[in-house]
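Saturday, quiet lab. Running sequence design on the structure tokens for the scaffold JK sent over.
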């Protein structure tokens, strides 16, 4: 599991199944899959803040990803 985000960032339960992506040298890398998150509203305000999100760490599934994609997808632990 990966925990990431901060105020105004992260994910919510409705985002589950989406990608957690990183850009490095103009190339996108998927680091995780959104498992859920927490969202709260400050009393007396209309603003909604995201505290953090939870992500499945896909590096733990590299063997399975390689097998399922027949080596078409690169994966690093």
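Result came back. Writing it out in full:
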């Amino acid at each position: 599991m990966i925990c990431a985000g901060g105020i105004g960032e992260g994910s919510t339960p409705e985002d589950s199944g989406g990608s957690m992506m990183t850009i490095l040298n103009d190339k996108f890398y998927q680091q995780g899959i959104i498992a859920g998150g927490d969202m709260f509203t400050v009393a007396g305000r209309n603003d909604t803040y995201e505290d953090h999100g939870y992500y499945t760490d896909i590096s733990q599934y590299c063997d399975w990803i390689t097998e399922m994609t027949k080596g078409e997808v690169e994966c690093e632990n």
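Notes for JK: The first strand starts at residue 2 and ends at 4. The chain has one domain: 2-68. Ask whether to fix the surface positions before the next round.
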